[in-house]
Design a protein that fits this description.
Number of helices: 17
CATH class of the domain at 43-160: Mainly Beta
Radius of gyration: 27 Å
Shape: elongated
Strand order of the largest sheet: 9-10-13-17-18-19-20-21
Oligomer: single chain
CATH architecture of the domain at 43-160: Sandwich
CATH topology of the domain at 43-160: Immunoglobulin-like
Distance between the termini: 57 Å
Number of strands: 29
Strand content: 15-25%
């Protein structure tokens, strides 16, 4: 940072009202200039931490701590910086000093920040290290670096001195296009992947980041997905946690390769036009001895009181969102993945657990906020800061909330009082849709409201419709096995579910294996059952998803107004007797698609549907086509209106509805 920039930051820091405004909304022009320079500054080397950085760290608004904290290599030595305000002494041990905790003892800064620093000679790229922390009680702790860029492969727990600055990105074209490709009015069809169990080598070992890159890029482009969502790849000691028990908030897991290898994965996907969403977990962390828990002998990152600091559902520690330094740590982690790895979106895990103080707790097991309520005011403030910072510094990204309650304004701007996310998972739609599809078609007429209720609130948030990993584990069964009936009906039902999902307002997400009708539940220690594609029903389902994605991306009516009432219009939501829905999807230019869905295995001839325009309507997709494993019942690709008033319209189509089928039509002239 230049001297003039440092002066600018100090001037802003001296103005308390300006700093307060910065934490709540957009920064002042001075701070904005400083932030821009921080983002462009090189992230490696021995740039010392300055007074202004300490100020923003202690204020809880510093978003680039990784540029100073942790291990930084340069000039044949390394500088180590760690936050341990309650430690009696701190030293660095590693391959470079024979793990001797007497040779490189750190000095604590004079300013009361609790930062310890030491420069160590002859530290080289790839060497292992840890911090030794002596607590006030005299205990000796060995801790991994909270800011480590790389870590030993589990079960080993040391951090690794690492310089990833030598990677040359080749995704400039994507980064230029990203704001439009990742926008809320663009198509977003997400393929959710657990990297360790998507595919494996013939010997059963993991694919590396680079191997996965080429294979995953080829698959998702062939299937016409727009985005890949990676379940957490932040370093985690227990593979069976799927990454949701994270110890390394700045390190891609070494199970699959180096940080440069992970950059190659992201880069490769970008070069074929696929965006990357990273699952990120700021809600809780595990109590492993080498990790963040009781880091300096005190409850530093977590609350001391278990009613606030211990998560009973996940047996893990909860971040203390009211501690400014913890907020800056988490904020810097989020920005790190956006800055250094070109991540296009963050999916923030378990937001509901952050918002509610009584989440997963009984009466008397939680502490009310200062107003006596159950809302976690500090977590709310942090999430607003996170989102404001992400959209300020990276206008082309999205931040997506996994939030399972009716908390208002999750995806509304912070200056309106919202949490500031770009999108929210629609867990209500998912539960209702799966509950409906499980019903025997004979009984579906009695559950018709499960289909229509989602449109009562569809535009209250910017929703993503998820059929995620959570729905195919722990005895819940695979998607195909949730469907009723014989094998033919099961596949027809799943094609039906996907067709209705792709036509329904909201962005789309499906977990790996669901798109081919994998029979087995997901198992993290295995791989997707790709051999299922040797059988026609599975290949037909996969082709259906591929074609759904192709049509979805080609027709703005299916995505452009996902979050606006103008993008959807019911034709008939009330035909519970026949379990049929009919509706329109619309684009800004007036182009319109007609969707008719038959949720029973009974073909329906002479089914009248009112339409907004006379003329010929072309059948774009039919889930019952023989190509997909269906029976081939349809409307011969084209049908013409008759002047019969139906559903309040003067023109109608006389349709033949296939069993358990989805039909999508477009007027011959495009607009309707």
């Amino acid at each position: 940072m230049t001297t003039e920039t440092g002066k600018a930051v100090r001037r802003v820091a001296a103005s308390k009202p300006a700093v307060k405004r910065k934490t709540k909304a957009a920064p002042t022009e001075q701070v904005a200039e400083v932030v821009a320079e921080i983002i462009e500054a090189p992230s490696q080397g021995l740039t010392p931490i300055g007074d202004q950085d300490v100020f923003f760290f202690r204020e809880g608004t510093h978003a680039r701590l990784y540029r100073f904290f942790g291990c930084h290599l340069g000039d044949g030595r390394a500088r180590f910086t760690v936050w341990a305000p309650n430690a009696r002494s701190v030293a660095v041990i590693g391959d470079f000093n024979d793990w001797d905790d007497t040779r490189h003892v750190a000095n604590v800064r004079w300013d009361g920040s609790g930062l310890w620093q030491v420069e160590v000679p002859d530290v080289h790229h790839g060497q292992r290290y840890k911090y030794v922390i002596w607590t006030e009680r005299g205990d000796r702790l060995e801790k991994a670096d909270p800011f480590a860029r790389y870590a030993e492969n589990a079960p080993a727990t040391a951090s690794i001195a690492w310089d990833a600055s030598d990677y040359e990105w080749n995704d400039a074209a994507w980064m230029d296009q990203r704001p439009s490709r990742n926008a809320l009015d663009s198509p977003m069809s997400v393929y959710e992947v657990h990297l360790g169990s998507w595919r494996r080598r013939a010997d059963g070992t993991f694919l590396g980041y680079r191997e996965a890159a080429t294979q995953l890029a080829a698959y998702v482009t062939g299937m016409n997905f727009t985005h890949v969502e990676l379940m957490p790849i932040t370093e985690h000691p227990f593979y069976g946690s799927w990454g949701y028990q994270c110890t390394g908030y700045f390190a891609p897991t070494s199970r699959y390769g180096t940080p440069q290898d992970f950059k190659f994965l992201v880069d490769t996907l970008h070069q074929v036009g696929v965006a990357v969403i990273l699952d990120w977990v700021p809600s809780h962390f595990p109590a492993d001895a080498h990790g963040l828990a009781q880091f300096d002998g005190s409850h530093l990152y977590e609350h001391a009181d278990p009613r606030q600091g211990f998560h009973p559902e996940w047996n893990s520690s909860i971040f203390n969102f009211g501690r400014n330094e913890v907020r800056a740590f988490l904020l810097s982690s989020a920005m790190y993945w956006l800055d250094e790895f070109h991540i296009d979106s963050l999916r923030v895990d378990a937001v509901a657990s952050m918002l509610y103080l009584d989440y997963a707790r009984n009466h008397g097991e939680w502490i009310p906020n200062r107003h006596g309520g159950r809302e976690n005011l500090e977590a709310i403030s942090f999430l607003q800061l996170l989102n404001a910072s992400a959209y300020r510094d990276h206008p082309g990204v999205q931040v997506i909330a996994e939030e399972s309650t009716a908390w208002p304004m999750v995806s509304r701007p912070t200056d309106m009082g919202g949490l500031g996310f770009g999108m929210k998972w629609n867990m209500g739609w998912m539960h209702d849709a799966l509950a409906y599809m499980r019903q025997n078609p004979v009984h579906r007429r009695y559950h018709h409201n499960l289909l229509t209720f989602s449109m009562m609130y569809a535009f209250t948030e910017n929703f993503m419709l998820p059929l995620s990993h959570d729905e195919v584990v722990y005895g819940k069964g695979s998607l195909i096995n949730k469907m009723p009936g014989d094998e033919w009906q099961q596949f027809a039902n799943l094609r039906l579910l996907f067709g209705h999902m792709w036509a329904h307002p909201g962005k789309k997400l499906v977990f790996m294996g669901g798109e081919i009708g994998q029979r087995a539940e997901w198992a993290h220690d295995g791989a997707v059952d790709w051999r299922a594609l040797e059988h026609d029903p599975h290949r037909g389902l996969q082709r259906w998803v591929e074609d759904l994605n192709r049509l979805y991306r080609a027709k703005p009516a299916l995505y452009e107004l996902d979050f606006e009432p103008a993008g959807f219009e019911w034709i008939n939501p009330d035909d519970a007797e026949h379990s049929v829905l009919s509706y329109l999807r619309k684009a800004r230019d007036g182009s319109t698609l007609l969707v008719v869905v038959n949720f029973t295995p009974v073909p329906r001839d002479n089914y009248m549907v009112g339409v907004p325009k006379a003329g010929r309507w072309r059948e774009l997709l039919n889930s019952d086509a023989k190509l997909y494993g269906g029976s081939g019942i349809g409307n011969l690709s084209m049908t013409k209106t008759v002047p019969t008033a139906t559903h309040g319209r003067f023109q109608s189509l006389n349709l033949r509805l296939p069993p358990l089928g989805v039909l999508i039509f477009e007027h011959e002239g495009g607009k309707a």
